[in-house]
Amino acid sequence: MNAVAERPSNRRILIASLVGTSVEFYDFYIYATAAALVFGPLFFPSESASAQLLAAYASLGVAFIARPLGASVFGHFGDRIGRKSTLVASLLLMGGSTLLIAFLPTYAQIGWVAPLLLCILRFGQGFGLGGEWGGAALLAVENAPQGWRGRYGMVPQLGAPVGFIAANGLFLILGMTLTAEEFMDWGWRIPFLGSILLVGVGLWVRLKLTETPAFAEALEEAPPAAVPFAEMLRDHWRATLGGTCGAIVCFAVYYLATAFALGYATTTLGIDRQLFLGLQILSIFFMAGSIAASGWLSDRYNARTVLLWGSVAAIIAGLVLPMTLQSGSLTLIFIGMSFALVVMGLVYGPLGAWLPGLFPARVRYTGVSMTFNVAGILGGALTPVAAQWLAEGRGLFWVGVYLAAASSVSLVALLSMRDRG
């Protein structure tokens, strides 16, 4: 009875889930933006600007390799000792790795050790993120009142646009106030330093939380799983496979509409970096609105239905985005990005409610974290690299085919699974 009486308010719970994922995505986005803008010449020198960009995008993918490893470790402890402590640890690891990137020497200073250290810290970011999103989603959904799972589940998803706006807004301000030389010399480090403030806020909110009712009830019914990962694979492999494939589309859409589009526009099309960052910040508001709408739609119908229609829309986005990029028109490019990010909201917002519904509470942290992060590898790790290679060798049309194919995988997976709300 005391545990129930001492439970934090729903407002604090939702703020804790939102702040954590905002920090998480801020950290990831500043890396993705820096990879598109400065990491190539600073850490991967080459005579070819395209080769530098490809190497920087490849370092972006290191975190995706680390994410399922982090998911298995943090999922194990999240299902055995609780959501709260695990969420605090994941936030500390990711925030610490991001902060240390700010102090890295460049290739010109220490040679090949510089990109090695960058990749190690990128691995730390990904390892921490492996336990972050799943825990934040469970924090919201496992505290949701009856009939509100979709709307509660979409709150941590709003951390994506919040983190994006904070990250790219800061890069935009730096670009406006610093010269190109100052930005390359030291200005790019400021966003990485700033992450420590956001991590502090996240920790302050999360340390005041208690465990979720679903986790407490699972402990009362039976001891925690000895090895949650093994139990997940043995008893819930269909849900794991289906959930993984169903989430691929959101990563493919996002990284094409942001990281690839930014790199392609500024290097191949020669569009001013500040101008394009401004366009991306404006277009991300469409994604925020779409995420919010997806939560309401998930409660009105169900999360799987929203994901199904979002996957169909993503196939269409595979045709629209390359056409608008190829046009070279800023207006059309903005329309194409905005449409793709609206689609991103429809295939991302419902995941917070859909994936937890696939697993019982005793292995839910592990199941949600693994499906989400393995999908990140399949849908996002190599997407900017593959898109850049396809754009150079075969043309933007094939970038659209790539997105349509990834979206089709998710569509087939969703069609094969039962409605679970």
From TrEMBL:
The chain crosses the membrane at residues 12-34, 54-75, 87-108, 114-141, 162-180, 186-205, 241-265, 277-297, 306-325, 331-355, 367-390, 396-415. Keywords: Cell membrane, Membrane, Transmembrane, Transmembrane helix, Transport. It is found in: Cell membrane. Gene3D superfamilies: MFS general substrate transporter like domains (1.20.1250.20). The keyword Transmembrane helix applies. Pfam families: MFS_1. It is a multi-pass membrane protein. This is MFS transporter. It comes from Sphingomonas cavernae.
